[in-house]
Amino acid sequence: MITMKDIVREGHPALRKKSKEVVMPPSEEEVKTLKKMLEFLKNSQDDELCEKYKLRPGVGLAAPQLGITKRMIAVHFEDFNGKKYSYGLFNPKIISHSVEQAYLAAGEGCLSVDRPIEGYVPRYARITVKATDIEGNEIKLRLKDYAAIVMQHEIDHLNGVMFYDHINEDNPFHAPSNARAIE
Ligand code: K2U
Ligand code: NI
């Protein structure tokens, strides 16, 4: 199982690289890795396992955070309306997005960043993502608000982008005029 020792931290080159597309169909090892990433997120949200293995709770994980520069991500969370999202995705791509932006009022964190970084992270409020799921199906996801934020955080990792790259340096709590706060 994946634990925190497997997650690379700031300064690791994988976090600043553009990850490579996974050639379809994925290898057994790539499928196994993606399943382990999803399992980590589920474990990290289980109080007992979290405590037992000293996990940091996570709602998303990208392969570069394991030092694997391949375009693979996992997400596992419930949005603020209680809608559940649980996906392992190969080669996720944002194919369209809103002009309107959104940001988490509480800011963002990252399992690869062992320090709190304050500030708003402006992102697209709505996105459409196409990807191949763990079973090999080509899927299209239309996401908004929290789900859109999580997905963009993870896809950023595949492009070597960290959440704090989006924070306004002069005024970290500057909200762009067309951006909506997600509480
Ligand atoms: O990619 C990662 O490091 C996982 C992040 C994803 C994330 C952070 C902030 C906003 C959207 C996505 C971790 O999930 S950070 C820890 C966390 C745990 C529960 C809820 C929000 C953030
Ligand atoms: Ni992160």
Jot down its keywords:
5-stranded antiparallel β-sheet, binds ligand K2U, 3-stranded mixed β-sheet, 27% strand, 20% helix, alpha+beta, binds nickel (II) ion, 183 residues, 3 helices, Peptide Deformylase, 8 strands
Order of strands across the biggest sheet? 1-2-3-6-7
CATH class: Alpha Beta
Structure annotation, total helices: 3
Q: What name is given to the CATH topology? A: Peptide Deformylase
The CATH superfamily name is Peptide deformylase
Give Rg in angstroms.
Answer: 16 Å
Inertia-based shape: globular
The total tally of domains equals 1
Poorly predicted runs: none
Mean pLDDT: 98
CATH architecture: Alpha-Beta Complex
Summarize the biggest pleated sheet: 5 strands, antiparallel
Percent of residues in beta strands? Answer: 25-35%
- Class per helix and strand makeup: alpha+beta
Small-molecule binders here are: ligand K2U, nickel (II) ion
Total count of strands: 8
- Span between termini: 33 Å
* Percentage of residues assigned to helices: 10-25%
Helix-strand topology string:
HHEEEEEEEHE
